[in-house]
Amino acid sequence: MITVLDTAEIEKLRKKIDVLGARGIRVLAGLAAEHAAAEEHFDRAVLSPGIDPAVPLVQHFIRRRIEMIGELELAYEMCQCPIIGITGTNGKTTTTQLVEQALKGAGVKTVAAGNIGPAFSARVRQSADLDVMTLEISSFQLESIRKFHARIAVWLGFAADHLDRYRSMEEYYAAKVRIFENQTADDWVVVNLRDKLPPLAAKKITFSAFAEGGDFEFKSGVIHFRGEPVLALADTKLRGAHNAENLMATLGVGFAWGVSFEAMRPALCAYQPLPHRCETLRTVNGVEWVNDSKGTNPDSVEKALLGETRPVVLIAGGKDKGFEYSLLTDIVAQKCRSVVSLGEMSDRIEALWRDRLPVHNAGWSLEKAVELAHAQAQPGDIVLFSPGTSSFDMFKNYADRGNQFRALVQALS
Fold it and tell me: Are the C-beta atoms of 161 and 195 separated by less than 8 Å?
């Protein structure tokens, strides 16, 4: 018998209880879930990646030595085709979609799943009919792997994030780097040249838009592979050097799979970027407004700024996750005309940067932040909404935050 345990109150789970109950699956909520985890017999526990292993519900299973795996490992046990696994602090979803479209465009049968949604376990039954499964994989999912094995593992880059879950950057890194641990010399890795990684068993392809010496380099707006031009960023619908890296990683995957760059190019040029990722909204009085609400850590702000050549009015801030924003000070002072600080971090950002450039505090009002940015920006500028942290101080999620920003910008006269 399958039992679902959820510590949420029963009334919040009523629909789930009814739907799963009709299929013979028991759902226990609240204190009943805690009691079952502590007392009932279970042969195996499958942990949702969104649940921190430190919570009491999970600790009951650990204390009782009940076998516990994650959803990623469960689906891997049933998968009947090779896997491309894509991880990194930023760029995972964009790159996963790029890989899916590029391979499909070249005649390779694949689907995207994992952290991108739908879950790997929801798509694994299709694996018998695929050449390869393309997975976006988070550190949360990698924490509990055992035999999970990626034929091609992609490492987009590593930066501070999720310090509300991990006790240190080292712990976060240790979870992420597990993507390589079951690979052999027959496999491939496609990795960011700038990151320090442990010795890798697989064959390696390196890339960087910010450093020389990789297999893929970014020169004068063009991606080169081992010295030969491959793809101009201007021929795609993507912007910024960070997206050049996402394209490099995708081209590296294709190379490892044996697909030509020419076969992938049409799909890469046609790819339409997702909302909230350096999304151009409109131009008002000569000022371009860009929505990067998906920028939920300082590294994403840095990369968004590095991609801009015009003066920037930056709107930043949100939930205080303990990030070291001082590391951004020089790039912000170099690229920005002014900053508008927002949310729980508004006072901290103002105090940190006000000695280097004008900072206007919008407090807890996104509407005020847009008004302040509108007043500061000059023709030819860019207003960049790249919060650099999560949205949960004021919004449901980054998409809600980005949608509200978009609506305010569209209302500008």
Answer: no
Tell me how far apart the alpha carbons of residues 192 and 155 are, in angstroms, rounded to a whole number: 6
Domains of the chain: 3-68 (no CATH), 72-270 (3.40.1190.10), 279-410 (3.90.190.20)
The model carries a pTM of 0.85
Scanning the structure block, which residue is given the tokens 């028991």?
Answer: 26
Contact 137, 95 (CB under 8 A): no
How far apart are the C-alpha atoms of 230 and 224, rounded to whole Å?
5
pLDDT band at 160 (very low <50, low <70, confident <90, very high): low
Q: How many residues does this entry show for the chain?
A: 413
- Nearest 10 degrees: Cα torsion 30, 33, 38, 42: -170
CA dihedral (99, 105, 107, 113) positive or negative: positive
Q: Cα separation of 203 and 281, whole Å?
A: 41
Catalytic residue numbers, as ranges:
92, 115, 162
Q: Is the pLDDT of residue 126 over 80?
A: yes
DSSP H or E run through 192: strand 188-192
- The alpha carbon dihedral of 194, 195, 198, 203 has a sign of negative
Q: What angle do CA 184, 189, 192 make, to 5 degrees?
A: 145
Burial per residue of 385-413, b for 16 or more beta-carbon CB atoms within 10 angstroms, e otherwise: bbbbbbbbbbbeebeebbbbbbebbeebe
Give the angle subtended at the CA of 83 by the CAs of 128 and 130, to the nearest 5°. 30
Instruction: Work out the burial of residue 48: count CB atoms within 10 Å of its CB; fewer than 13 is exposed, 13-18 middle, 19 or more buried.
Output: middle
User: What average pLDDT score do residues 162-174 get?
Assistant: 82
Does residue 301 sit in helix, strand or coil?
A: helix
Burial call 340-365: b when 16+ CB within 10 Å, e when fewer: bbbbbbbeebbebbeeebebbbbeee
- Residue-level pLDDT at 410: 97
